[in-house]
Amino acid sequence: MKTLNAIEGAKKSFIALKNPYDSVEKVYPMIIDQFKENGSIYYAGVKNRSQISSAFVQSLEEIGIYLHTLDRAATAGRAIDIHLKNPYTGRPMTGSSSGTAINVLLGINDIGIGTDGGGSVLAPAMAVNLIGFISPLLDQENRKRLTSGMSTDGIAFQPSLGFITEEFDLLKKVVNVMLPVEEVSEMNIEIIYDPVDFSKKEIDAWEGQTSVKDLSFKFDARERVMPKLKELLANCDVLISKEGPIDTDGLGDTVLGHFDQRTQEQQRQGKKGNLRVVNMLGATAITLPAEEFAVGYLLICESTPKKISKMLQFSEEWSQVKNPYTRYFSDCREYYPKEFG
Question: Are 232 and 298 contained in the same domain?
Fold first, then answer.
C-alpha cells in the first residue's frame, strides 16, 4: 500500500489549488502539518453534502486519513453532472459524487467519501476506472437521523456512504475499521453470475459454488430490477454483474429518461445496471475496474458482516487492473510546466 511523504502531499495540494477540472470547492492545504506528527498520511476528499457527518470524517484520522478537499457534486443529486466533465472523454461527468471521483483520478486525494442513493458513488467510480464501495452499515448512527429522499422514478431511499479509491489495500484498511466485518476462515462462497459477462478462465478460477443466472434484466427500469435482484441476493453470498461502459454511448440520467422513448433509450445506453438499485435494496457493493474503459465488475451482497467479509476476501483475490493512463492526470508537473526564462 502506497504511503505519502510531505513533498508528495504538497504536490497534491498544488493540483487541488490549480483545480484544473473545477472539481474542488475548498482545499485544506495545511493538512501537510500532519506529516510532522504522523510521518505518513492519506489524503481524503469529501463530497460537499450534509449527509456526511463531520464525526465520520474525523473518525478516519485514527487510521491516518485526513480531510484535504471538499468536492463538488452534481446539482440536485443528478446521475450526470452537467457542470463537470469526465477528464477522459470530455463528456458530462457521471454523478452525483462527480467531483469526488475526479479528485481521486487526478491524484488530489487517495480516497474519496461520497453518498449513494441510486448509484452516485459506484457509477462515478466506474466511469473513470476506479474502485467504488458502498454500504448502509457505514455511519449508521448518523443515517438514522437522515430523512428519506425520493428518486426521479418515485422510489424512496436513504443514501448510503461510500468510498472511491485507486488502491484496494487502502479500501480494505478503511472498511475493516469502519464496518463490523468478520474473519472468514474458510472461503466457501456461493456466487451468482451471468456467463455472458465472463470468460471461462475467469469462472474456472472461482472457488466455491456457482450458479448461472440470466442478469440481462439489469438495464430495465428500477421497479423491475429491484424484486429480481433482491430474490437473487437472498440465495447467494455474492452476485457479480459486469456493467458499463458508463455514460460513454448515452447518458444514464432519469431526468432525461422520463421525457420520451428516445431519451429512455439514451438513458439505457448509459449502461448503468444493478448499481442503480444497490443502495435502494439496502445492499453492500464494491465495483472493481475492468481493462475496458468505464467498465467494471459489480460485486453485491446482503449487508451482513459475514457476507461483506466474504465479498471483500473474494475481491482481494480478483485480478486487480491498474490503469496506466492516470499519470496524465496526476502528475503535478503537467499543471505547472517549466516556463521559458
Answer: yes
Is 71 within the bounds of a domain? Answer: yes
Domain that holds residue 220: 190-286+294-302
Share of residues in the chain with pLDDT > 90 (%): 74
Residue 169 grid coordinates: 489495500
Rounded CA separation 192/213 (Å): 7
The model's pTM is 0.95
pLDDT in tens, 38-69: 888 999 999 999 899 999 999 999 999 999 99
Q: Other CB atoms closer than 10 Å to residue 147's CB: what's the count?
A: 6
Domain count, the chain: 2
- At residue 127, the 3 state secondary structure works out as helix
Residue appearing with cell numbers 428500477: 222
Quickly state the pLDDT bin for 200 (edges 50, 70, 90): confident
> What are the residues whose beta carbons fall under 8 Å from the beta carbon of 297, sequence distance 6 or more?
197, 240, 241, 242, 287, 288, 290, 318
Higher pLDDT, 199 or 109: 109
Question: 221 and 86, same structural domain?
Answer: no
C-alpha 215/C-alpha 175 separation (Å) is 28
The whole-angstrom separation of Cα 131 and Cα 128 is: 9
H runs (alpha helix) in 86-139: 98-105, 122-127
